[in-house]
Design goal:
single chain, alpha/beta, seven-stranded parallel β-sheet, globular
């Protein structure tokens, strides 16, 4: 039975990934800061799939907790086949408005949380010739205005993943980077923003999305099994990413227009 470790796995995309892999016969370890929710979800997984899944409390910013998680997994499973660095947070605001504390918080969770996971678990994955799936975002590929901290954090995850894709190839460790756009999740519950309108817009886009967490999880499973590197799940954002690469002047023109729209809406609310 293959073994997978998913951070931020108690809800949202992490939970959808846990169900997807469980349905394919994998046994799952869920890590999250939501202890009660995580333990209840693991019971649900074990009842539905009979796969001996278990839960670990993990703050991804705490390196010591990462080492403790690795020890527990090594003691229980004697190895690991797939690491999914899914835990993440969101923030929005202009560069001169978002506090440095919130900017740093975004980087600590979204970037260093992923770095620490790769650092701690890569030795184990080298032995199993396993897989790393780093969850970035379409924001790691296309960079909308007023999202500097989030964009920077997710672009860093893409860069780290590209590095490890080449670096770990000789060890037969495959790396994928997942870059979804909006879908219904609980990300906005902890989102830090300088303007509440930013949270409202994000929530509305999530609600309107035709792609659900289960769809993203299924696409991730299939792409990873096929050894794909970039997993871009939303067709519109995939098109914008291609536009950026091949027609950058047109892409930046659209980004500037978006920035002007954001500014006009902000002025209208403050008037």
């Amino acid at each position: 039975m293959k073994r997978i470790f998913i951070t931020g796995g108690a809800s949202g995309l992490g939970a959808a990934l846990a169900k997807q892999y469980s349905s394919k016969g994998w046994t799952v370890c869920i890590a999250d800061v939501q202890k009660e929710v995580g333990e209840a979800f693991v019971k649900e997984l074990n009842t539905q799939f009979n796969n001996d899944s278990f839960f670990i409390t993990l703050d991804v910013t705490d390196e010591a907790q990462w080492h403790e998680a690795a020890k527990e997994i090594s003691d229980r499973w004697k190895g690991l086949d797939c690491l999914v660095n899914n835990a993440g947070v969101a923030s929005s605001g202009d560069i001169d408005q978002l506090s440095m504390q919130d900017f740093q918080w975004t980087l600590d969770v979204n970037v260093m949380g992923v770095v620490k996971g790769c650092y701690v678990f890569t030795p184990m994955l080298k032995k199993s010739k396993g897989t790393i799936i780093n969850v970035a975002s379409a924001a790691g590929l296309i960079h909308a205005p007023s999202m500097s901290a989030y964009n920077v954090s997710k672009a860093a995850v893409v860069a780290l993943s590209e590095t490890l894709y080449a670096e770990l190839d000789s060890h037969n460790v495959h790396v994928s980077v997942l870059c979804p756009a909006f879908f219904k999740t609980n990300l906005t519950q902890s989102m830090r923003a300088t303007d509440k309108g930013g949270i409202a817009i994000a929530s509305k886009l999530m609600e309107r999305s035709k792609i659900q967490a289960g769809d993203v999880a299924r696409m991730t499973y299939e792409a990873s099994e096929n050894k794909e590197f970039y997993i871009v799940t939303h067709s519109k954002e995939k098109m914008i990413w291609r536009l950026k690469r091949f027609l950058p002047a047109v892409y930046f023109s659209q980004m500037k227009k978006m920035g002007n729209v954001f500014k006009s809406k902000s002025k209208g609310k403050s008037a």
